Give the backbone structure.
Amino acid sequence: MIAMNSTWLPFAVALLSGFFALAGHWLSGAQTRQRAAQDRDARRAERRFDLRNELYSNLALQVDAFTNAVKRVTGPEQLLATLADLRRAAAPIVYQSRQIADGPLRNLLVAAETLAGQAGRLAASSPVRIEAVTAFQAAREALIDSLAADLDRCL
């Protein structure tokens, strides 16, 4: 057995102190990197939420503008321009949520195109036009619900 004299004890303490200091620095660095990754992910999620919120709000405004244009249709040109604005607002949604784009958004656009085609040539009290308005309103409600659910998932 090796006898520990006064030179071995300070050497062992220095060696252990150095080891624990390095381990503490390594652990602190790992925690800092983990915290930075969490902050980066939180900022990305916040930017994604803000972008989707802006796109969805713009789409909802265009849907309402189309609804108002149908109510006060003066000519097919105005309705077609509003329909084009609606399509333009719907285009970026494809890149944000394929599920919404393939389901409720497509249904809304089909209902809007059907309604735009009938609004210019049929009277407001026509059963076919009333049915088209009802289908559009149902598609609108389904889309708004899907957009709200998607924003809730982003939180």
